[in-house]
Design brief:
4 helices; globular; 142 residues; 3-stranded antiparallel β-sheet; two-stranded antiparallel ribbon; single chain; alpha+beta
Length: 142
């Protein structure tokens, strides 16, 4: 999905939503969070390989909800992590709008390979964020 300068400007019009696929789990038994990129109804998916042990995703609020085994503080810490990732995605799209650089799925994936962990205001370490190679997923954009 290479974009010309004109198309790169229009990437700002893409709708970015975080969704979770509860039907599949990875080998660790955790739920992968996928980022939905939608442009005029043509839906494209990029999986950033962010895995959590959260059980449900509330699409209305955009927050993840855990089971009763988690405390309210733990729930909030996980939600803060997801919000931080979504913010970074928004910032990434804005930067590409400014730079008019060609955008490919691999470009976005490469920028996220540097993400390992995130911390909240209390310096509490979150679960590691797993970044993998998504060449197969990126090929869906061709």
């Amino acid at each position: 999905m290479k974009m010309c300068k004109f198309c790169a400007k229009k990437i700002g019009n893409m709708i970015i939503k975080s969704i979770i696929d509860n039907r599949r789990t990875n080998k660790f038994g955790k739920y992968p969070i996928k980022i939905l990129l939608s442009d005029k109804g043509n839906r494209k998916y990029i999986s950033l390989g962010i895995y959590t042990d959260l059980a449900e995703f509330d699409e209305a609020s955009g927050l993840l909800i855990t089971s009763n085994k988690k405390t309210q503080k733990e729930n909030q810490q996980h939600n803060n992590l997801i919000i931080a990732v979504r913010t970074q995605i928004n910032d990434l799209i804005i930067e590409y709008r400014k730079s008019n650089k060609p955008v490919t799925p691999d470009t976005i994936i490469d920028l996220y390979k540097n993400i390992n962990t995130a911390k909240d205001k209390e310096n509490y370490t979150f679960n590691r964020v797993y970044i993998q190679s998504f060449r197969a997923t990126a090929s869906n954009f061709q």
